Structures are given as structure tokens and as C-alpha cells.
């Protein structure tokens, strides 16, 4: 009760302190979330047995469809799926999201960790216009299984009409859409267009050997290949933003340290103004330890309230920003991982305790007579 009364003593100062901590932890949470998510994605794929095979000249160059049979015959290869980028938009240009055409035959064996039901895979193999849609895209556009949608082509001047037969979840990107490559080739009237071959090795130890074998057999050909593990493939893409990630982490820490110094100054001023009150409390029998605990509790409550507001605001802002971000780039996958919430609230608690500890300790241990004389 005494702590709450003291918190309401100077409502303006308390509110401004809460807001300053909330803003700083909002910035910290937003900046640090992106590199954390990127590292989590790479950690999730570190043990993957999938391999991405693309043209050595770059992802914009196609590979011949004839490579599929030769890749499948490579020792330790369990499955091969050809993939072609479509890049269609749902309604408006702002409605773009990653949509890809894949061969249906071995899709179930390739993406076992994407939480696609056997029924959805069966319909995907049977229905020529079938599509599997990520849960994030389903939620974003209010789609449902069984619904028919049309995507307008950007890479190819054709539209495709698709029927949603299932959802994609698990470790899959939440905004992906997969449909059948034979349907795409029929629509564009140009068979044999392959952007990437996804290859599944029989076990993790075989991945380096499969990569070497594939690149070796297509060396010095008209379309040389570059094969990479799934984590390596994603890592090369994310390396483009590595400097940005580092700057985000550094700026986040700087903001927290800065607001910690401001909070320390505010706490010192508040405690200095209450020297006479603290002296009276000690003369009434309050121990130095109890007074120190009361002052630290006040500061801790202010910091945690600010931390909750800052983290909560960052969570919803990042969620909205991710839902409306472009389909490529780091912002497409941004969210607030639970570890960031823990770190931010831990930083808030540290700010609250560290900023008030020294002035509170000095006030709690000061000489009662000297404190009263100084005020008088």
C-alpha cells in the first residue's frame, strides 16, 4: 500500500518515466526481433536433409527439366521436386506473396515437416488446379479450404485459377502458396521451366556427398549447377541483410543503456526529494533494509509496467508490419519471438533496480539527524 501511494505522489513523473521506458523497450524489441528470427530460421534448418540446386549463374536463370532424372539417379538421393517461381498477385500489387509451382509426385516426401495432411497431399496429386496455402496467407486474405482463387501473373503474362485443398504449417514459411508445375507449364505454353530443384538426401551425413556429386556431373555444361544445403541457401540470402541485423542489435542495446541512465537520474532526483520522509521513517523504526526494498520495489514496478507496454506495442506493430510487408526481404518474416519478450522484460527489471539502487542505498543508510538537519 505504501509503495502504491508513493508511486501516485507525482503522477506526471511516474507516467513520463513509464512512457520513456516503454518507448525504449519498444525500439529494443523491434530492432532485436529481426536478427533473432533470422537466427531461429537458420537453426531450424541446420539439421535439414534438403538441398537446393539452382543455376550457378543466379536464381533468375532456369535449369533444364532433363536434369531431374539425372539428379534422381544420384546415390543417396531420396526425392527430387522441381520448382518454378510464379510471382502472382491476388488482387492488388500490395497483395503479393510468394507463390511457387512444384511437381506433385514427391512433394509429400520432400516436405515432411510442413504439417500438410495426407488428404491434402492426395488431393494435390489428383487435382490439376490444386493449391496448398500457408496459414499466414490464409489468415491475411480470409481464405478457406475448398475456396477457388485466381492469381494474376507478373513473371508470366497469364492468370491461374486455383482451388485450395489444404494448408501449410509446421516449419514452412507462413506466407507460401504451392500449386502444380504441370498446370503452370500448360498455362504459359512453355514446358521445361525449372527455377530450383529441391533434393532430399537419405540422411544428414549424405548431404555433402550429394551436393558434390550433383555439381560434378553438371560441371562444364550449358547450365552449371550450384547446390547448397537448405540452411546454406537461406543463410546466403540472409547474409545480404547481415550488416542491417548487426546495426539493429547494436542500436537496441544503445537505446536501453541510454534510457537506463535517464531512469537513474530520475530515480536519484525522486529519492533526494524524499530525504526527510525517509529519515522520519527510520526514526519510527523502519530498518534500512526495508526502506531500500520499498524504494527498489517502486522503481521495479515503474520499469516493468513500461516494459509490458513497450513489448506489447512492439508485438502488435511487428505483426501488422509483417502482414503488410513485401513478400521478400527481412521484414516479411519479422515477429517477436518469446525470447525477446523475456529479454526485454529482463532489461526493464534491470533498469528499474540498477537505476534506483545506489541513491536508494545511500538514502536508506544516511544518518537520521544529518538528513533532518539538512532539510531543515
Structure report:
The chain has 376 residues and is α+β, with helices and mostly antiparallel strands. It has 2 domains: 2-42 and 241-375, no CATH class; 62-222, no CATH class. It has 14 helices and 9 strands. Strands 5-6-4-7-3-2-8-1-9 form a 9-stranded mixed β-sheet. Strand 5 (148-152) and strand 6 (159-168) form a beta hairpin. The relative contact order is 0.18.
Largest beta sheet, briefly? 9 strands, mixed
- How far apart are the first and last residues' alpha carbons, in Å? 28 Å
Mean pLDDT: 82
Number of domains: 2
- Uncertain stretches of 5 or more adjacent residues: 326-331
Element order, helices and strands?
Answer: HHEHEEHHEHEEEHEHEHHHHHH
Number of helices: 14
Helical proportion, percent range: 55-70%
- Determine Rg (CA atoms, Å): 29 Å
The coarse overall form would be elongated
Number of extended strands = 9
SS-based class: alpha+beta
Q: Beta-strand level of the residues, as a percent range?
A: 5-15%
- What is the strand arrangement across the widest sheet? 5-6-4-7-3-2-8-1-9
Amino acid at each position: 500500500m505504501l509503495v502504491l501511494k508513493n508511486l501516485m505522489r507525482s503522477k506526471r513523473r511516474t507516467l513520463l518515466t513509464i512512457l520513456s521506458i516503454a518507448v525504449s523497450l519498444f525500439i529494443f524489441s523491434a530492432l532485436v526481433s529481426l536478427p533473432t528470427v533470422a537466427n531461429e530460421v537458420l537453426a531450424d534448418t541446420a539439421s535439414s536433409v534438403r538441398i537446393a540446386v539452382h543455376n550457378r549463374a543466379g536464381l533468375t536463370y532456369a535449369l533444364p527439366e532433363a536434369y531431374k532424372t539425372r539428379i534422381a539417379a544420384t546415390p543417396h538421393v531420396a526425392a527430387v521436386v522441381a520448382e518454378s517461381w510464379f510471382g502472382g498477385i491476388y488482387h492488388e500489387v500490395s497483395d503479393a506473396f510468394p507463390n511457387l509451382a512444384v511437381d506433385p509426385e514427391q512433394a509429400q516426401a520432400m516436405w515432411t515437416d510442413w504439417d500438410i495432411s495426407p488428404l491434402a497431399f492426395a488431393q494435390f496429386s489428383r487435382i490439376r488446379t490444386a493449391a496448398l496455402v500457408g496459414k499466414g496467407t490464409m489468415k491475411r486474405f480470409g481464405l478457406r479450404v475448398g475456396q477457388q482463387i485466381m492469381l494474376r501473373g507478373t513473371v508470366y503474362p497469364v492468370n491461374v485459377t486455383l482451388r485450395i485443398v489444404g494448408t501449410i504449417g509446421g516449419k514452412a514459411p507462413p506466407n507460401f502458396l504451392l500449386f502444380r508445375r504441370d498446370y503452370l507449364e500448360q498455362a504459359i505454353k512453355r514446358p521445361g521451366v525449372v527455377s530450383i530443384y529441391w533434393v532430399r538426401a537419405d540422411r544428414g551425413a549424405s548431404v555433402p556427398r550429394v551436393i558434390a556429386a550433383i555439381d560434378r556431373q553438371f560441371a562444364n555444361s550449358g547450365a552449371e549447377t550450384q547446390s547448397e544445403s537448405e540452411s546454406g541457401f537461406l543463410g546466403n540470402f540472409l547474409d545480404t541483410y547481415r550488416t542491417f541485423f548487426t546495426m539493429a542489435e547494436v542500436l537496441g542495446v544503445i537505446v536501453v543503456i541510454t534510457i537506463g541512465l535517464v531512469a537513474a537520474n530520475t530515480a536519484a532526483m525522486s529519492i533526494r526529494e524524499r530525504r526527510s520522509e525517509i529519515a522520519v521513517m527510520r526514526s519510527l523504526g523502519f530498518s534500512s533494509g526495508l526502506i531500500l526494498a520499498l524504494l527498489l520495489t517502486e522503481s521495479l514496478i515503474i520499469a516493468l509496467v513500461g516494459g509490458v507496454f513497450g513489448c506489447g506495442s512492439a508485438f502488435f506493430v511487428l505483426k501488422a508490419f509483417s502482414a503488410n510487408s513485401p513478400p521478400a526481404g527481412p521484414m516479411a518474416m519479422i515477429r517477436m519471438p518469446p525470447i525477446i519478450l523475456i529479454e526485454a522484460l529482463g532489461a526493464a527489471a534491470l533498469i528499474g533496480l540498477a537505476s534506483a539502487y545506489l541513491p536508494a542505498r545511500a538514502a536508506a543508510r544516511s544518518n537520521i539527524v544529518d538528513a533532518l538537519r539538512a532539510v531543515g
